[in-house]
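Action item from last meeting closed. Structure (780 res):
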């Protein structure tokens, strides 16, 4: 367990140490690396302040481990990751702290690099085999190509002195004794990890390993070259020869030196060999050697060799050339009988000073600088990754009296990250003086308090920390009702941005999209940004429109039509959507449908038009179709068109007038006779109410019903003409019908249709009043 004194002492020890970086890096990249050191140091110093303020050592350890995990996630693919720059002061500081906060059975490497699984060989305890007295010597390790297994470089150097078979599988008959699971790239990185001393030592180990199997023949030299080419090939290393020359350049140069020292007679004899039924039978071994030599910067060709190489132009594939060389050896075993004279190749009597080379390699390893193996593009994103780390945010702010301190932390981080959002800095400055109740511990609690105090600055506050917000946070802010229109618009854009980046699978999309069903503006934006995703992801796009309509706010229906109505491709789907859409949206829906995609005959067209509520809707469909698209004659199409043109177009004007009339009548009845309604009046009101509920009722049918109602009332009064004075309902019907009847010779005595004209004292109708029939309630 770490103490405040330990933490302070370690920070003081490392914070002024100068960081050195590779001379091959540009100034911008170095500046970002230096910035990361400042951000991490700033965090650690503020942890000491929190430590002094009363946070327990246990919570300090949790905060530190959480930050180290976030730091590794941000930097693992950069050239300042621990294995690539082990002696960077900030890396050493994090290492020393991790060693102090590690539990008894917890490996330090798992705190610093949580993605590491194990060593690249069998092990019984990662902690025991990577630490000595609690110290993890990170400079002695690198990561394998996958980034998940540790390669113990110093251990490999030591093991190689005793038994190279444990490192190199080359030349070994199966099963090989190899102890370390390393591919060609991994071995190449071990070789170059600490400069020239490591390279010389690894080359010496390889030579020593080969000498155990080498009979000093031309055949063995060719076999060794083919083996290294195989390691550089696509099948083994994953790249072409021209890209991965580093994996075989030493082998090519070594063979080139041998080739140049061979006697002319030996070369002439070698060039006589050919392979049958494999590759080009005209190419000699020299043809393939030249294809390799020409691509090595230190191998020069004569004019004659250069001309030969250009004429043959062998494709430079390491895998293919390796296969050809091996086939030469299989078909021409005599090559193993061509012994190389001492001095022409590797001298069998040469003594390699392995101990001195080993010691030099170990020294270089323990003093190695920065190695450039990764792409530093992710460096520009690391400040946000670290600043958004919710665990740090919550741990440091878990107590009420630390709110101001916590805000200061993030204020400092925003300044270090060169945040250009000036309002954000103002926000943090104000927050340091805002008292927060001690029971406010969660981020949502924090947002609630802050939003009420500074609603105009809420967007500036949360913009850098969108990863902290859930949909619940966003909805709370939208529903507060105190944000300006500009802030609400910005908040909606943030919601869409986060939604788009995290939508994942189709099921997740529908789940999150449905969450915003009460926010039409949000759903409209989501549909705009997710249209292409849905078109690409949904297999049955014909049902996409109905699936979305069932989860969409009414005022966002037009966006569904805009993006997906054209995908409706069956009568079934058309009617499913039709039932989900209110009447006010029917016309917009019809205009967005591509009817020609699923209406192929007059019978199919009639099936749809007969189901529509208005002749106007039929006309909208007919605009898209013609005789050719319906596979009928022009005469048949014209006849059908005429039948639809003769079909009355239902308007909403008369329907609304009847609603208004019945509303006035029922209101008057409630005032004058609340408990009575004449039986015949009940029948009239019920009949009109039933027609209003039927969307297929035409204006002509309404007019016929109104005229029949007039006649019914007139029959009660014996056609004496007194019904105009005695019946309020008669007067209302007559005034409603007036615009739809031919003008009379004499002026009308009707009273204007206003609600006030029916509240003057009048003779009360003597009819018994009963409520409207069940199922025909008039409620407007």
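Sequence:
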């Amino acid at each position: 367990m770490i103490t405040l004194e330990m933490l302070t002492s370690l920070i003081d020890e490392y914070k002024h140490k100068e960081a050195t970086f590779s001379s091959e890096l540009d100034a911008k990249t170095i500046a970002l690396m230096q910035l990361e050191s400042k951000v991490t140091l700033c965090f650690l110093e503020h942890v000491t302040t929190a430590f002094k303020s009363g946070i327990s050592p246990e919570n300090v350890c949790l905060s530190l481990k959480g930050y180290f995990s976030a730091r590794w996630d941000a930097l693992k693919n950069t050239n300042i990751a621990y294995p690539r720059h082990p002696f960077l002061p900030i890396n050493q500081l994090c290492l020393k702290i991790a060693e102090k906060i590690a539990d008894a059975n917890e490996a330090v490497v798992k705190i610093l690099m949580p993605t590491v699984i194990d060593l690249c060989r069998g092990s019984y305890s990662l902690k025991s085999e990577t630490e000595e007295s609690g110290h993890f010597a990170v400079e002695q390790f690198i990561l394998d190509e996958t980034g998940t297994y540790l390669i113990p470089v110093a251990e490999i150097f030591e093991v190689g002195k005793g038994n190279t078979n444990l490192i190199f599988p080359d030349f070994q008959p199966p099963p090989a004794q190899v102890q370390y699971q390393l591919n060609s790239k991994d071995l190449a990185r071990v070789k170059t990890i600490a400069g020239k001393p490591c390279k010389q030592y690894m080359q010496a180990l390889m030579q020593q390993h080969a000498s155990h199997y080498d009979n000093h023949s031309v055949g063995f030299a060719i076999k060794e070259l083919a083996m290294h080419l195989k390691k550089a090939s696509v099948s083994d290393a994953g790249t072409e020869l021209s890209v991965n020359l580093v994996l075989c350049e030493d082998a090519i140069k070594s063979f080139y030196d041998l080739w140049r020292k061979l006697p002319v007679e030996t070369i002439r004899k070698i060039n006589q060999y050919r392979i049958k039924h494999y590759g080009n039978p005209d190419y000699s071994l020299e043809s393939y050697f030249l294809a390799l030599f020409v691509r090595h910067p230190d191998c020069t060709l004569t004019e004659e060799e250069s001309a030969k190489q250009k004429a043959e132009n062998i494709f430079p594939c390491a895998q293919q050339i390796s296969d050809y060389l091996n086939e030469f050896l299989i078909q021409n075993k005599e090559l193993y009988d061509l012994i190389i004279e001492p001095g022409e190749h590797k001298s069998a009597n040469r003594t390699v000073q392995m101990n001195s080379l080993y010691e030099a390699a170990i020294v270089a390893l323990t003093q190695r600088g920065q190695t450039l193996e990764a792409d530093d593009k992710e460096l520009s994103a690391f400040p946000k990754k670290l600043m958004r780390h919710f665990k740090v945010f919550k741990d440091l702010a878990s107590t009420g009296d630390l709110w101001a301190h916590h805000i200061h932390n993030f204020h400092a981080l925003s300044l270090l990250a060169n945040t250009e959002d000036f309002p954000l800095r103002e926000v943090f400055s104000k927050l340091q003086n805002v008292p927060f109740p001690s029971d406010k511990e969660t981020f949502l609690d924090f947002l609630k308090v802050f939003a009420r105090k500074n609603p105009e600055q809420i967007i500036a506050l949360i913009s850098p920390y969108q990863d902290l917000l859930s949909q619940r946070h966003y909805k709370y802010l939208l529903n507060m009702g105190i944000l300006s229109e500009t802030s609400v618009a910005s908040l909606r854009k943030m919601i869409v941005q986060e939604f788009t980046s995290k939508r994942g699978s189709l099921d997740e999309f529908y789940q999150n999209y449905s969450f915003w069903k009460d926010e039409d503006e949000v759903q409209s934006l989501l549909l705009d940004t997710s249209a292409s995703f849905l078109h690409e992801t949904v297999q049955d796009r014909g049902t996409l429109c109905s699936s979305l309509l069932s989860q969409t706010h009414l005022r966002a229906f037009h966006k569904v039509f805009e993006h997906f109505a054209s995908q409706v491709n069956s009568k079934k789907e058309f009617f499913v959507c039709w039932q989900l859409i209110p009447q006010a949206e029917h016309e917009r829906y019809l205009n967005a449908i591509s009817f020609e995609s699923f209406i192929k005959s007059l019978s199919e067209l009639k099936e749809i038009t007969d189901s529509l509520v208005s002749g106007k809707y039929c006309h909208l469909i007919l605009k898209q179709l013609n005789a050719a698209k319906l596979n009928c004659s022009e005469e048949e199409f014209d006849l059908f068109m005429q039948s639809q043109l003769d079909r009355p177009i239902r308007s909403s004007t008369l329907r609304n007038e009847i609603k208004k009339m019945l509303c006035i009548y029922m209101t008057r009845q409630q005032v004058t006779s609340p408990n009575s309604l004449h039986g015949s009046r009940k029948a009239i009101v019920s009949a009109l109410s039933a027609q209003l509920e039927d969307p297929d009722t035409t204006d002509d049918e309404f007019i016929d019903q109104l005229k029949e109602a007039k006649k019914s009332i007139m029959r009660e009064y014996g056609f004496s003409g007194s019904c105009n004075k005695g019946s309020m309902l008669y007067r209302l019907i007559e005034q409603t019908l007036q615009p739809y009847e031919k003008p009379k010779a004499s002026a009308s005595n009707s009273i204007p249709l206003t609600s006030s004209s029916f509240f003057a004292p009048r003779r009360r109708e003597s009819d018994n009043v009963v409520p409207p029939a069940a199922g025909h309630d008039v409620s407007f």
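Note appended to the action item: The chain has 39 helices and five strands.
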